[in-house]
Amino acid sequence: MKKTKKKINAAILIIGNEVLSGRTQDANVSFLSNWLNDNCGITVEEVRIIQDIEKKIILNVLDLSKKFNYVFTTGGIGPTHDDITSLSISRAFKARYEFNKEAYQILEKYYGKINFNDGRKKMAKMPNGSSLIYNPSSAAPGFKIKNIFCLPGVPSILQSMVGNLKIYLKNGLTTINKNFNLETVESYIAFDLEKLQNKFLKTVNIGSYPFFRLGKVGVSIVLSSQSKIQLNACEKKFIKMVKNKKIKLFKNN
Amino acid sequence: MKKTKKKINAAILIIGNEVLSGRTQDANVSFLSNWLNDNCGITVEEVRIIQDIEKKIILNVLDLSKKFNYVFTTGGIGPTHDDITSLSISRAFKARYEFNKEAYQILEKYYGKINFNDGRKKMAKMPNGSSLIYNPSSAAPGFKIKNIFCLPGVPSILQSMVGNLKIYLKNGLTTINKNFNLETVESYIAFDLEKLQNKFLKTVNIGSYPFFRLGKVGVSIVLSSQSKIQLNACEKKFIKMVKNKKIKLFKNN
Known about the structure:
2 copies of one chain form a homodimer.
Chain A: E1 8-15, H1 17-20, H2 28-40, E2 42-50, H3 54-67, E3 70-74, H4 85-92, E4 97-99, H5 101-111, H6 118-122, E5 125-127, E6 131-135, E7 139-145, E8 148-151, H7 155-161, E9 176-183, H8 186-199, E10 204-213, E11 216-225, H9 228-244, E12 248-249
């Protein structure tokens, strides 16, 4: 018997001063959020970026773990002194911070016995009871404990690993989006858009985002729904509104 | 008498489904964080990205308002139905949500009486007791209430407004950063880096971030401090370590 899919939500916790300080532009939120929605029907509902301070990691992990079905952390699982995600999460869940046998073997094989130094060994340490998230690009695995999934911060490595998350994740309802870029300003459509939103209050979310492109102002309208039927019905009424108000769409919509 | 500058911290609260869903890549965190540090000596210590849902805005604004000296929100102050930041913050602080006289006049002048429709008028509504943050590019002002500063989400508009924040902000200690891109891997330097960090435990923060560039692996080391003297002392020892370990710097360091 086919089970009815439910709404499943998630949070992303980015651990690292480099993103917070503005030196590094995060690329993981956009990738993870899209990947989780498109492949697993999981909706990211909150993102936090925090400093790599043990107390803050513990507080945020525990808080988000309670509030969301899944939590994905990025960063802080490398070999250097500022990589304290694994240790902090062990303490958050009062689990022993210890060598994971399988992770140890994977890394020893990857680096060779002679080159397997302390820094590299550190990457095999994680909370007792963790399951591994395999890493096809640079060997060092991520891990899952409770509903927390710990991934590295380097985008290319993270992206190579997400396929290995799937075995742990329940599939929920995918959100379908339709995007329209209008040659107009928000205040010209605000009234009609609100009327439309009120008609589809519980089924379609209508977002309105102003932008500038090649010196022109525009508004990007996003219709989002977990029901194709409701989305299509809303789109129909939206297109009618656009025509009635004589608004053009941008060419490369 | 010159007052001694203190550490001043801040949080950024990004309100909007478009960033959360991964459709839009945020550009405001990096800009704001750099600007606040370089111009005001204010350190951003946490970022949250949340949905535009009134209850969530209220909870997060109140929580961050207590934890940080300043909170900067972006997004949700435009004319459409999904722009609910001003209303939500009014409710968070139990302030009346009403027309700000000056904002109303600014917008009426900008659009002209005839074109000043309801959507545009909405942008003059904010919590009673707010102070305006003037907007030189598209007129609609942001506002300050308590220690919360509400800015728009469109990066170019936000960037044109930050100069007008300065009158409200106390200056703190600027963090100075030095960045070195090494042709090495983290595990080769982890031990020595930790030793160095322990020597400057309370004065310099040493961050280590692996990266890939043109097929080569590298590590970006960031030394951060609010004391120039300590930073220079740490840098000296760091350079010595790099030489001893025969590590090259990337050419375009």
